[in-house]
Amino acid sequence: MKAAVWDGSGPTLTIEDIPRPEPKRGEILLKVTACGVCHTDLHVLKSEVKFPAPAVLGHEVSGVVEHIGEGVDNVAIGDRVVCSFIMPCGDCRHCVRGLEDLCEKFFAHNRLNGTLYDGESRLARHDGTPLAMYSMGGLAEYCVVPASDAFKVPDGVGLGEVSILGCSSFTALGAVHNADLELGDRIAVIAAGGVGSSIVQFAVAAGVSQIIAIDVNDDKLKAVAALGATHTINSRDTDAVAAVKALTDGHGVDVAFEALGNPHTFATAMDILDDGGRAVVVGIAPAGSTGQIDLARLVRRKLEIHGSYGAKARSDMPALLRMVSAGIVEPEHIITRRYTLDQVDEAYQALARGEIVGRAIIEMEATP
Ligand SMILES: [Zn+2]
Ligand SMILES: [Zn+2]
């Protein structure tokens, strides 16, 4: 099969022919329909997030179940499914208390070593060289996923477009849950990319009264305004803190989502909070980044800072699919570019240049 391989030497991907993987017990083989183009992959490509090489990245997939391993009974061959990037093991101490977004085996095996939970990757080159898997390694024609991370897509819902539920919508839903939004809250979303766009959609659904989107790209701001952002601020030419204060009677917002992962935008998120406000930090900052906090203000103004990596796959993915069926979440309105697998490197270069509004996806079937 064809797969996009990162050899670790630089921020580029190369299409290679590698053996089709085999699912083990409790796993499925997915014929990938689409895989989202995510900033987190880019962080790995640029070596800003440590990950072993050579590797197959891609962690936002949908597809058709091609084959099932022993003991799989929640999906069958031919089912159309979507998978989340956090693939919960289901039995670690966090999973058993419902905190699948902290799954220990996922972080210890997959995020550190690029393997599944028996300590082995399912991917290798023809010469036997193992290829690390970032989540399921979805930038390929086929991938192996734990069956606990496969969620059936309802009839009538497009399979390609729901791929982005697995990371950008999933991450956004986790962030909104962690924000404890209340009806009438005022919020700001810093960085209007894939995750930021989804946060805006959820905030509209949650009855937030004011949604202020902040970015440096006017096209992205225009796109999130169409999704329901009530105000937009281009922080390249405007002082974002002063502008947010001006839009909120001088108070600031109840919740600031930081979806970039940058010390400067983290500072902005803290500076635009109203008293008692919550900063929800969602963006993945390069390893070693630190943010500064005014400690006296944190205490006196009772501010909160929540880290939020993802959502809880087994309850939140079905919820996301229900929201898509109901028209509350419209992934097709967030996807603005579609590439073939052969164009994968071009897609990530465009992402690196900040050109992608909303989300781009790689469509495997479209590969000539
Ligand atoms: Zn992602
Ligand atoms: Zn777990």
Essential attributes:
368 residues, alpha/beta, Quinone Oxidoreductase, Chain A, domain 1, Rossmann fold, 2 domains, 7-stranded mixed sheet, 6-stranded parallel sheet, 18 strands, 25% strand
Descriptive notes:
Strands 3, 5, 6, 9, 10, 17 and 18 form a 7-stranded mixed sheet that branches. Strands 13-12-11-14-15-16 form a 6-stranded parallel sheet, with helices on both faces. It has a 5-stranded mixed sheet with strand order 2-1-4-8-7, with no helix packed on it. It has helices spanning 39-45, 93-96, 104-113, 168-179, 194-205, 218-227, 240-247, 263-271, 295-300, 313-325, 344-352, and strands at 2-6, 14-17, 27-37, 55-56, 61-68, 80-83, 123-124, 130-133, 142-146, 150-152, 186-190, 210-215, 231-234, 253-258, 273-281, 304-307, 335-340, 359-363. The longest helix has 13 residues, at 313-325. With 368 residues, the protein is an alpha/beta fold. Bound molecules: zinc ion (2 copies).
